[in-house]
Design a protein that fits this description.
Blueprint: H1 2-26, E1 39-40, H2 65-72, E2 85-89, H3 95-99, E3 106-114, E4 122-128, H4 134-144, E5 157-163, E6 166-172, H5 176-184
Antiparallel strand pairs: 1-5, 2-3, 3-4, 4-6, 5-6
Length: 187
Amino acid sequence: MSKKILIGVVVVIVIAIIVAVAVMQNKPNKTDETNNNEVVNNNVDSENITDGGNDGDTANIDGTLEEIMDKLYVGIPEEERPMMLENKKVTKEEIQNYVGTSDIDFKEALVSEPGINVIPHSVVLLRLNDEKDASNVVTKIKENVNPRKWICVEAENVIVKSKGDLVVLIMANDLAKTIDANFEGLK
Protein backbone atom coordinates (compact mmCIF):
# COMPACT_ATOMS: atom_id res chain seq x y z
CA MET A 1 0.00 0.00 0.00
CA SER A 2 2.73 2.49 0.89
CA LYS A 3 4.51 1.76 -2.41
CA LYS A 4 1.35 2.78 -4.31
CA ILE A 5 1.09 5.99 -2.30
CA LEU A 6 4.74 6.80 -2.98
CA ILE A 7 4.27 6.25 -6.71
CA GLY A 8 1.17 8.47 -6.65
CA VAL A 9 3.05 11.25 -4.87
CA VAL A 10 5.91 11.06 -7.37
CA VAL A 11 3.46 11.24 -10.29
CA VAL A 12 1.75 14.32 -8.78
CA ILE A 13 5.12 16.05 -8.25
CA VAL A 14 6.22 15.32 -11.84
CA ILE A 15 2.94 16.69 -13.20
CA ALA A 16 3.28 19.82 -11.04
CA ILE A 17 6.80 20.43 -12.36
CA ILE A 18 5.66 19.97 -15.97
CA VAL A 19 2.80 22.43 -15.44
CA ALA A 20 5.12 24.96 -13.78
CA VAL A 21 7.62 24.76 -16.65
CA ALA A 22 4.82 25.11 -19.24
CA VAL A 23 3.44 28.17 -17.46
CA MET A 24 6.93 29.67 -17.19
CA GLN A 25 7.61 29.22 -20.91
CA ASN A 26 4.32 30.80 -21.91
CA LYS A 27 4.59 33.81 -19.61
CA PRO A 28 5.60 36.98 -21.50
CA ASN A 29 8.56 38.90 -20.14
CA LYS A 30 7.85 42.51 -19.23
CA THR A 31 10.86 44.78 -19.39
CA ASP A 32 11.46 48.41 -18.63
CA GLU A 33 14.59 49.36 -20.50
CA THR A 34 15.07 53.03 -19.81
CA ASN A 35 18.86 52.80 -19.87
CA ASN A 36 21.22 50.12 -21.15
CA ASN A 37 22.63 49.64 -17.63
CA GLU A 38 19.30 49.85 -15.83
CA VAL A 39 16.42 47.83 -14.63
CA VAL A 40 14.56 44.87 -15.99
CA ASN A 41 11.43 45.00 -13.88
CA ASN A 42 9.08 42.03 -14.00
CA ASN A 43 6.70 43.63 -11.55
CA VAL A 44 3.34 44.85 -12.82
CA ASP A 45 3.38 47.58 -10.15
CA SER A 46 6.49 49.52 -11.20
CA GLU A 47 6.47 51.79 -8.15
CA ASN A 48 8.09 48.99 -6.11
CA ILE A 49 11.45 49.73 -7.70
CA THR A 50 13.32 52.87 -8.60
CA ASP A 51 14.69 53.38 -12.08
CA GLY A 52 17.77 55.35 -10.96
CA GLY A 53 20.46 55.03 -13.60
CA ASN A 54 24.19 54.90 -13.22
CA ASP A 55 25.57 58.17 -11.97
CA GLY A 56 28.17 58.35 -14.72
CA ASP A 57 30.89 57.24 -12.29
CA THR A 58 32.89 54.61 -14.15
CA ALA A 59 35.64 54.23 -11.54
CA ASN A 60 36.25 50.70 -10.39
CA ILE A 61 35.06 49.84 -6.90
CA ASP A 62 37.81 48.75 -4.50
CA GLY A 63 37.49 45.77 -2.21
CA THR A 64 36.80 42.07 -2.48
CA LEU A 65 33.48 40.88 -3.82
CA GLU A 66 32.65 39.67 -0.29
CA GLU A 67 33.25 43.18 1.10
CA ILE A 68 31.17 44.74 -1.67
CA MET A 69 28.36 42.22 -1.16
CA ASP A 70 28.28 43.16 2.55
CA LYS A 71 27.85 46.81 1.51
CA LEU A 72 24.85 45.88 -0.65
CA TYR A 73 23.00 44.62 2.43
CA VAL A 74 23.69 47.68 4.61
CA GLY A 75 20.47 48.97 6.17
CA ILE A 76 18.70 45.62 5.89
CA PRO A 77 18.35 44.09 9.36
CA GLU A 78 19.30 40.42 9.70
CA GLU A 79 15.70 39.42 10.47
CA GLU A 80 14.49 40.98 7.17
CA ARG A 81 17.03 39.11 5.04
CA PRO A 82 16.15 35.72 3.56
CA MET A 83 16.79 32.80 5.92
CA MET A 84 20.20 31.13 5.71
CA LEU A 85 21.57 33.77 3.31
CA GLU A 86 25.05 32.79 2.21
CA ASN A 87 27.70 33.91 -0.26
CA LYS A 88 29.22 31.50 -2.76
CA LYS A 89 31.99 32.00 -5.29
CA VAL A 90 30.79 31.21 -8.79
CA THR A 91 32.96 29.53 -11.41
CA LYS A 92 32.78 30.01 -15.17
CA GLU A 93 31.15 26.57 -15.41
CA GLU A 94 28.39 27.61 -12.98
CA ILE A 95 27.73 31.19 -14.10
CA GLN A 96 24.87 30.28 -16.46
CA ASN A 97 22.87 28.94 -13.49
CA TYR A 98 22.94 32.40 -11.92
CA VAL A 99 22.81 34.92 -14.78
CA GLY A 100 21.28 32.88 -17.62
CA THR A 101 24.31 32.83 -19.90
CA SER A 102 27.88 31.58 -19.89
CA ASP A 103 28.88 33.94 -22.71
CA ILE A 104 30.54 36.40 -20.30
CA ASP A 105 34.22 37.13 -19.77
CA PHE A 106 34.75 37.81 -16.06
CA LYS A 107 37.51 37.74 -13.49
CA GLU A 108 35.45 36.58 -10.52
CA ALA A 109 31.86 36.21 -9.43
CA LEU A 110 29.99 35.93 -6.14
CA VAL A 111 26.35 35.07 -5.50
CA SER A 112 24.30 35.74 -2.38
CA GLU A 113 21.35 33.38 -2.07
CA PRO A 114 19.36 31.78 0.72
CA GLY A 115 20.02 28.17 1.61
CA ILE A 116 16.31 27.51 1.01
CA ASN A 117 15.46 27.53 -2.70
CA VAL A 118 11.82 28.53 -2.29
CA ILE A 119 12.78 32.12 -1.54
CA PRO A 120 13.15 34.14 -4.78
CA HIS A 121 16.30 36.04 -3.88
CA SER A 122 19.62 36.14 -5.73
CA VAL A 123 22.27 38.86 -5.88
CA VAL A 124 25.19 38.24 -8.22
CA LEU A 125 28.31 40.40 -8.40
CA LEU A 126 30.63 40.03 -11.38
CA ARG A 127 34.04 41.66 -11.63
CA LEU A 128 34.85 41.87 -15.32
CA ASN A 129 38.23 41.51 -16.95
CA ASP A 130 37.59 44.73 -18.87
CA GLU A 131 35.16 47.42 -17.74
CA LYS A 132 34.55 48.31 -21.43
CA ASP A 133 32.56 45.06 -21.64
CA ALA A 134 30.12 46.13 -18.90
CA SER A 135 27.39 47.39 -21.21
CA ASN A 136 27.48 44.23 -23.34
CA VAL A 137 27.43 42.00 -20.25
CA VAL A 138 24.44 43.87 -18.83
CA THR A 139 22.59 43.38 -22.13
CA LYS A 140 23.44 39.65 -22.29
CA ILE A 141 22.22 39.09 -18.75
CA LYS A 142 18.99 41.04 -19.38
CA GLU A 143 18.27 38.93 -22.45
CA ASN A 144 18.94 35.59 -20.74
CA VAL A 145 18.19 35.83 -17.02
CA ASN A 146 15.29 33.79 -15.68
CA PRO A 147 13.44 35.35 -12.72
CA ARG A 148 11.59 32.01 -12.34
CA LYS A 149 14.72 29.92 -11.98
CA TRP A 150 13.28 28.59 -8.72
CA ILE A 151 10.34 27.15 -10.76
CA CYS A 152 7.76 27.42 -7.96
CA VAL A 153 8.42 31.10 -7.18
CA GLU A 154 9.41 34.19 -9.17
CA ALA A 155 11.39 37.28 -8.24
CA GLU A 156 9.16 40.36 -8.55
CA ASN A 157 12.07 42.62 -9.49
CA VAL A 158 15.09 42.00 -11.68
CA ILE A 159 17.77 44.68 -11.81
CA VAL A 160 20.90 44.49 -13.95
CA LYS A 161 23.42 47.32 -14.00
CA SER A 162 27.10 48.11 -13.95
CA LYS A 163 29.54 50.42 -12.24
CA GLY A 164 33.13 50.42 -13.42
CA ASP A 165 34.23 46.81 -13.80
CA LEU A 166 31.36 45.53 -11.61
CA VAL A 167 28.06 44.16 -12.84
CA VAL A 168 25.24 43.37 -10.44
CA LEU A 169 22.18 41.22 -10.99
CA ILE A 170 19.52 41.63 -8.32
CA MET A 171 16.55 39.28 -8.38
CA ALA A 172 14.48 39.90 -5.28
CA ASN A 173 11.16 41.05 -3.95
CA ASP A 174 11.01 43.66 -1.19
CA LEU A 175 14.79 44.02 -0.75
CA ALA A 176 15.56 44.92 -4.38
CA LYS A 177 15.14 48.67 -3.92
CA THR A 178 17.52 48.87 -0.96
CA ILE A 179 20.16 46.63 -2.56
CA ASP A 180 19.94 48.67 -5.77
CA ALA A 181 20.35 51.95 -3.85
CA ASN A 182 23.35 50.52 -1.99
CA PHE A 183 24.94 49.49 -5.31
CA GLU A 184 24.38 53.00 -6.68
CA GLY A 185 26.09 54.41 -3.57
CA LEU A 186 29.27 52.37 -3.97
CA LYS A 187 32.43 54.43 -4.34
